[in-house]
Amino acid sequence: MNVGDTLAPLEIPVTRTLIVAGAIASRDYQDVHHDASLAREKGSPDIFMNILTTNGLVGRYITDRLGPGTVLRKVAIRLGAPNYPGDTMILTGTVIAVDGSRVEIRVVGANGIGHHVTGTVTAEVAA
Q1: Taking CA 92 as the corner, what is the angle to CA 17 and CA 45, rounded to the nearest 5 degrees?
Q2: For the segment 85-95, what is each residue's pLDDT rounded down to a tens digit?
């Protein structure tokens, strides 16, 4: 890997099931992640994905692209535009640093309304 290399994108359909399952799996029972009526009462047009699900999807993106022996050393992300059901999030990555077997990758996850997630992932790549 070299600085400037890009990873193949990953398209993730944002389904109601993915949002609810991710919230349950991460024990995030906030109503905005599973109850559309209560989410609308709080000003959201629908339920939306939680940060823990997004974090897991970013990790999956990196390990899918770099291989099963990859170890995530640091994941630093920031959320932006919500992921609502019916949209698609496209994850992309660019290598921004390489030090031996350690790589740092800038990750962006975009949906139909903007950048859902931005950040960096530092990973140790198996030889």
Answers
A1: 40
A2: 999 999 999 99
